[in-house]
Amino acid sequence: MSDGPVLRREESTLSNAYDHAAIERRWQQHWEKQQLFRARNPGDLDFDPKARKYYVLDMFPYPSGSGLHVGHAVGYIGTDVVARKKRMEGCNVLHPMGWDAFGLPAEQYAIATGKHPSETNKTNTANYRRQLKLIGLSYDWSREIDTSDPRYYKWTQWIFKRLFERGLAYQAEVPVWWCEELKTVLANEEVINGRSERGNFPCVRRPLKQWMLAITKYAERLLEDLDGLDWPESIKAQQREWIGKSEGAEIEFEVEGGAGKLVVFTTRPDTLWGATFMVVAPEHALLKKVPASHRAAVDAYVAQAAAKSELERTDLAKDKSGVFTGLYAHNPAFERGDARGRIPIWTADYVMAGYGTGAIMSVPGHDERDHEFATKFELPIVEVVRAPHGVKGFADGACFCDDGVAVNSGPLDGLATPAAKKKAIELLAARGVGKPRVTYKLRDWLFSRQRYWGEPFPLLHLADGTTIAVADDALPIELPRLDDFKPSSDGSAPLARAKQWVETRDPKSGASARRNTDTMPGWAGSCWYWLRFMDPANAREPWARDAESYWGPVDLYVGGAAHAVMHLLYSRFWHKVLFDVGLVHTKEPFQKLFNQGLLTAFAYEDGTGRLVANTELEERDGRFFKRGTNEPVTQIVTKMAKSLGNVVNPDDIVKEYGADTLRLYELFMGPLADSKPWNTRDIAGSRRFVERVWRMLVDPDRDDHVRPHLSIDQARPELTGESLELEKHFHRALAKVDSSFEHFNFNTAIAALMTFVNEASKRPQALTRAQGERFVLALSPFAPHVAEELWQRFGHEQSLVRESWPKVDPRFLEDDTIEIPVQVLGKLRGKVVVAKGAAEPEIVAAAKAAVPTWLEGKTLVKTIVVPQKLVNFVVR
RNA sequence: GGGGAAGUGGCGAAAUCGGCAGACGCAUGGGACUUAAAAUCCCAAGCCGGCAACGGCGUCCGGGUUCAAGUCCCGGCUUCCCCA
What we know:
Elements: H1 20-34, E1 53-58, H2 70-88, E2 92-94, E3 98-99, H3 104-113, H4 117-134, E4 145-146, H5 150-165, E5 169-179, E6 184-186, E7 191-192, E8 195-196, E9 203-213, H6 219-224, H7 233-243, E10 246-255, E11 261-266, E12 277-280, H8 292-306, H9 310-314, E13 323-330, E14 342-347, E15 359-362, H10 368-377, E16 385-386, E17 405-406, H11 417-430, E18 434-439, E19 445-446, E20 459-462, E21 467-469, H12 499-502, E22 503-505, E23 512-515, H13 529-532, H14 545-551, E24 556-559, H15 566-581, E25 593-595, E26 599-605, E27 611-612, E28 617-620, E29 623-626, E30 634-639, H16 650-657, H17 659-668, E31 676-678, H18 683-697, H19 708-711, H20 721-743, H21 746-762, H22 769-779, H23 784-793, E32 817-824, E33 827-835, H24 840-850, H25 852-855, E34 860-866, E35 870-875
Parallel strand pairs: 1-2, 1-24, 3-4, 12-14, 24-25, 26-31, 32-35
Antiparallel strand pairs: 5-6, 5-9, 7-8, 9-19, 10-11, 10-13, 10-18, 12-15, 13-14, 16-17, 20-21, 20-23, 22-23, 26-27, 26-30, 28-29, 32-33, 34-35
Helix pairs in contact: 1-23, 16-17, 17-18, 18-21, 20-21, 22-23
This protein binds one RNA strand through helix 7, helix 9, helix 18, helix 21 and strand 32.
């Protein structure tokens, strides 16, 4: 493998002072020209079959108009450090970047600026690309993708066809969230408290014919396969919660008067004997059978409930409301004719039409909401589960909802709750009035949008009412260029205005046909992009099989926790479908997931709690005041936002301090996973570190490439004295650098490198060339530009990108003597220095001698010796 | 309301297993160099008391386990994130 020679000496910086702008420009150009970060695919000429593969992926951004801020960069810098070290460890590293360009935000931005989304997308991606390169991120730019490029979305449509063919995409008239302001339907996940996530506009429920993806068919597998993933437990928990599996039973209650059956789902079939009434949702079909005597009251209640949001209805703290329907049901736990089995049916809005069957059996003794309801309307409460001893239960007037022992439940009496559940289901099943049932909270995925900026569906609607997919070779169905792409006031899709495009023919039969005018949601393009990166230019198929079997799965996926549910669940779903089709060889797309922490920033409030922009502040004696006044402001920590005036642009930081300093600072702030506040004041420390490194190896007052004593390649004599000391310091630092990759706490790695530089600057002549070179290699993932420059100054002609990562030699990690703290009653009272392998009696004797005044006149009760660590005397 | 993460100096933080709390930086104070400044280098610094040696207190609060607790257990408070 040849990287080509690096720039010759005469082209390098003339001055021996550290000049970040010149250094960073040179090396970024060099990397690009030599394509040093190009990942080799199987079949490529220079592909090395012996090299291990490593696929490290960032969640790709949608390129907004305001560009990157330093908070976005945290994760990208983290993955870049990993990618660079993996290359030095001999891995074939796939580290790509691209643009999630379709979707609502891009379209909203285009509408706001009056420019076509394809134009704004072009300028925005160009700006992002420039910014990412400025930070020195080692992406393989030859693999860049853009989800709004027809060469990309051709395959998004192609994959949609696979779902369609397998019956996983269907049209349905469903009540969906409609946002009047955005003129589109939104998925449940895009609506928060009845308002749109994008723009915070009010939304209402409305029945509309929509495309749905049957993600619920994969619910069980999406749940089960979480177990094998190296993901943060919190994300797994959120996905489990979202899928919301509950196991229980479906039970049939006969409604009196031949009004049919009422089916309920319950997770507690063991409490059937305690069901003293039933509740149906206000939308439930049974309400059509309400007798005339109760009709008016029920109708009034239904109308009132329709005006409430789901939040208002489910809030536990809210006062329960409801009305009796005049109907009765028979509880199948009891014999027909047994008065205890005749229970009233109510309607109440705390029961949701969309969950389970829209009806419940109410067990007020053992369910909080039922208990509250029964108390308010004076309905009977029966104990059927006895609380364990010492726990507040029915006898104490409490509502006991956990596992206990069945009572007042006929054949179940005496059984513990799990066994009682099982037996109840058996009994009901034997009589044909119940069966085990599993339900999920997960709903099918609403997949169509009445918007412009998205992938068109590869579908044709024929005159006879059937819908067919277009042939694979007719893809892509290109998004027609519309100059007026604003949503229509009547809610019809903007694409309906592209008459020429809509009216077409079925190529097979020649019959006239209409294209589908919906577009796919913003999530579609990101549901498979990690696969396209494996083989981005393939025009014949979405990716070559051998590329996927080599690169898959993603080894490390890094992004914000904000995508815990939607993107990661949808992606896993598509990946599983592709697995079933035989297009990928793994069940899961992302083996290891890591969430970088939120980068926050300081903001300032005045006495009234109003925010004061950072430009309106001045600092005096470490305190902050409103500029030109004596009005003090208090510092708070919040997210970076334009409105708070605390957004920091990486361009400015790179210009003033350099990319290496920016990278070091962002990593040095704290562990990658932590949320932490940006403080421009602190950057100086990282910059000083870079300059100290520079001066450790280069004398700014001479014109040698490196300091004279580093320029000669000695025959490696046995290390002695201060050079040996430095060798030990180097290996200790390197060990910390290595271990920082386990938890991505690169702050400790940089601290260790700083300590080494501090030690080396205490011994200016002791540093050897070999130590300097290995230090530069160890520094290079974090500060790659200055490392390359120094590496070249050592006389190397090749970039260090694929140099071997230095190895820790454990022999240098240990000293001949160790210092052991001596405690008396657990408090530090002295220290002793002993030989490494010193025997215990010797250590104890030395320790006693070190703390005489603390032992004098006391009785020694016990001596604790932790080998190599500590001595503690317990005295009385 | 549910789930998750966290709380350590003036600030960002460090501390595999329970074993020297505050590494490494920032800001601060003092000194060296300089005609002067910047830069750089050296020193100090958790808080309280003391000239000092030194002592007491100290990891959100209250209990507990232990020779020993930032770390483990019980109870509480606060902040952030996600969901409803």
